[in-house]
Structure prediction request, 235 residues.
Amino acid sequence: MVTGIEWAITVVGIFLTMCMFTTLYGKSNVLYSLASESYVGFATGLVVIMSVTFIYRTGILGIMAGDWILALGIFLGLLTFSRIFPQYGYISRLPIGFSVGAQLALSMRTQIFTGFINHIRGTIVNLFPGDSQTMLYSWTVIICLIPMLTFFLYTIEMKGPMGSTAKFGEIVLYIAIGAVFAQTFMGRLGMFVGFMQSYTIPPWKIPILVSGMVIVLAIVAVLDRANLIDRWIPE
Prediction:
């Protein structure tokens, strides 16, 4: 049995989502502004609630348990609110600098392994393994890697064999970028398919989805014909 809350959530979700898709209409409209600003507002509220909950569970309860070092983090966090007052805004540089420096140090430590060492290890392959498929992969890595590296040699003139190698590396680089773009597109398409499944299963959601599509499209078309489609869009 469908509850009233579940029905209301489905109706509002479908309406706002269809309003977001009105960007495909080709013109800015008030429905898209309503949906996008509602999304930003809801997301901001959710982030605030999750942040306050995290501070309470990690900070307050941690301090009550005797981990007093957490009080320093709460104190630095409170100092960031000094940006509200222009005469004391410089104080916020201390917690912001501390946070950026600590995060940069942590990210650099992980990037050394994930973005540098592991990539080098991945290119050191056995060219003559027992498996023919693995050997094909290994030779593909070597044949594509060396020309791609020569493409980024800017200290010498690219002509002759070096120029041909760099050109081949450029082609391989374009293929790799195209594959990444295709993977990104497939990921977005998968998200769309997941969305459609969430609003078509169970079957009682299908009439609401179709009605939402028709209503939103009709509103946009009427506003466009009346030259009111962008009348209430905020600057």
